[in-house]
Amino acid sequence: MKLVPIIYLLVLSPLAQAQIAIGFYKQERDGLSLYTTAPLTAIHRIALCADPSDNPSDCHWLKPKEFKQAEPVDDVMAEQTVMHYRMSRHISPGIKTGQGIAIINAEQVRRSANSSFIAIAQRKHYKILICTGVEGINLELLDGPRKLHNLYFYLGYDTLPTCEDTGPVDDKGQ
């Protein structure tokens, strides 16, 4: 009796292989800008979510094919280059604010307490924290106690700081 080797090919969807990331969006008169450290080629799905305190209906989901590369932006606070992508249309009028956060490659997103979100990607739960500094918005992506990514969005005007200095350890620099 001859044994024939059987080879199983497991084809994973691009979303199952994609890494989760965060960013910001801003609706402008001539379209929408997306700011993130994720390269456009690694983005498979984008959830655009307004601040939970604004209580909009839901996040708005987009595909990356709607975006074109624009000029990158230096994020001096985080010492990284942030990619800038543009699309010429506006998103759902159900999202009331002109800016908010982008959650890249999540399979599901839900609101959590204290102006944060929980994102599910690759069967893991990630926490996205949002707080304001003196002149901008801080965004952090956490995997348990580890800080995976952080971004800062400069607003150009003073805001009431809500960020606390105590938080998860940033493993990126170690």
TrEMBL record:
User: Where is the signal peptide, in residue numbers?
Assistant: 1-18
User: Does the keyword Signal belong to this entry?
Assistant: yes
Keywords of the record, alphabetical order, are: Signal
Q: What is this protein called?
A: DUF4124 domain-containing protein
Per the UniProt entry, what species is this protein from, by scientific name? Answer: Herbaspirillum aquaticum
Task: Recall the taxonomic lineage recorded for the source organism.
Answer: Bacteria, Pseudomonadati, Pseudomonadota, Betaproteobacteria, Burkholderiales
